[in-house]
Amino acid sequence: MSDSLNSIPQNIVLIGFMAAGKSSVGKLLARELRWGFMDTDSEIERMTGLKIPEIFQKYGEARFRSEENLLVHKISGFTDTVIATGGGTVLDPENWNILHGLGKLVYLYVPLEIALQRAKEHHDRPLLSSSEPEQIEKLWRDREVIYRKAPITVDTSDKDVQTVAAEILELLKGEHITA
After folding, report:
1. Whole-angstrom Cα distance, residue 2 to residue 166?
2. CA 168, 171, 174, 176 torsion-angle sign
3. Which residue ranges of the chain lie beneath pLDDT 50?
4. Which structural domains are found in the chain, ordered by start?
């Protein structure tokens, strides 16, 4: 996978719904590119000393989004980094603009049914534990509209992490872009 990657933008920012594969794909991309990797949710946990569900439970979603916004500002000078964002990070237009300027936004698409199936394997999804199925479906639909604005979309439905990472690298090699 790591041929001549000179045309890869200075950062790759992965966006998408929960369980789309952003963290897994991001780690592999970073390894292939010999770049840094940041998972924004993990970094927020490190910064606050709390797990994401704890932040939601103790302080609410508004506090979490505030931490997320602070982190996006903090990373705005990063280069050579693959950034896996939380599912709601790009809902804030300010975050979208910063991340869009930071590198190439890549939307990892996953149908709702598959996202829910994957997410059930993890019990640290605050939106799943506190929402009704109809609310989750609405959330997915509302976010989908925003995610689709990314210049690149990769469907992760029936693909393993290696295939998705290879597809992203191939798509980015064709784009002679430096964010």
Report:
1. 9
2. negative
3. 1-4, 6-7, 176-179
4. 11-169 (3.40.50.300)
